[in-house]
Amino acid sequence: MKIGIVGPALSGKTTLFQLLTGASATGHKGGIPQGAARVPDDRVDALSEIFNPKKTTYATVEFADFPSLGSSGELTSEAANRLKACDALAVVVRAHRDPSVPWPEAPVSPDKAFSSFLEEMILTDLAQVETLLAPKTKDKKQKRTPEEQRVLEACQELLEQTRPLSAGNWSADDLPILRNYAFLSSRPVLVAVNLDEEQLQEKDYEGRKNIVAECEETGYPLVEFSGTLEAEISQMDKQEQEEFLAEYGLTESGIARLAAATYQLLNLISFFTVGEDEVRAWTIKKETPAKKAAGKIHSDIERGFIRAEVINYTEFRELGDSLKNARDQGKLRLEGKEYLVQDGDIINFRFNV
């Protein structure tokens, strides 16, 4: 799963990418830096303290830092096609007033910058839909099912109302059709507003009411952060970070909140494997059956799946942080291959190959 970071020039999107990934890009596919961001999880921290493993591994999310948009958020067809390779988008807009970072052109408030990008996504998809629905000549007969035709017409109606396709009320049968056409506005979107120190303290900036309202209307999560302060926070130890954040009325850094928000944006959850060798968070989609979840660890475990020993993290803590207590009290459940893994499940897979 990959999230594309996009935004106007000097919005702070590359700073955000570097802070999320530790500036350790894993590759530059097609000239686009890519890297993995660790998803903070207090449960992994606690399990690591309990089991004292040789290794602790957190869940991660992949990010790609796309080239800057124009000052008006315009999308070229090449840029739109590249973004379609992503599972979700993080749109970074600028609110900060740092004079050392001059605007490339006239200043644009964050609400207007985001609205421009949203409009560009919608227009890109509308042009694609209109092309698909245009009458074909005899030499180009249309090979489309009635269901596909209905979905495309519903897309056109929604887009003509200047609403993204993610706002549509789609059935389970509609979703594969939408994915097949790879419409840009059907993707989940997160909005990240880059603030200065004063704006972060006051929790106010130009256009805030508008961008909050637009995010609520579209269902897009909104994360406010300060790239300048986040760079300072990244150099502090844990206690210093907590004290620093408390001055701003925060319990988590903006980077931690954004990483967690993207995890939810992609409809992901974590299950855990624990032991002396490693405590690890494994990433799966919600409602993943146990047998398929086992395949995240190794294909042999999925192929030879027998049963899953399961206890949820919350119940594990209530039982004194002991798997032995859980087993003795009959709380360590044996689940079959169709069991839907829940967020926070601690699992030991039984298998035979």
Automatic annotation (TrEMBL):
Source organism of the structure: Dethiobacter alkaliphilus AHT 1
The protein, known as: TGS domain-containing protein
Top-level taxonomic group: Bacteria
Cross-referenced PANTHER family: OBG GTPASE FAMILY (PTHR23305), OBG-TYPE G DOMAIN-CONTAINING PROTEIN (PTHR23305:SF18)
InterPro entries membership: ATPase_YchF/OLA1, Beta-grasp_dom_sf, P-loop_NTPase, TGS, TGS-like, TGS-like_dom_sf, YchF_C
Keywords: ATP-binding, Metal-binding, Nucleotide-binding
Stretches assigned to the TGS domain: 267-351
Record Gene3D superfamilies: 3.10.20.30, P-loop containing nucleotide triphosphate hydrolases, TGS-like domain
GO MF annotations in UniProt: ATP binding; ATP hydrolysis activity; GTP binding; metal ion binding
Taxonomic lineage from the root: Bacteria, Bacillati, Bacillota, Dethiobacteria, Dethiobacterales
A UniProt-annotated Pfam family: YchF-GTPase_C
GO cellular component: cytoplasm
Cofactor(s) essential for the protein: Mg(2+)
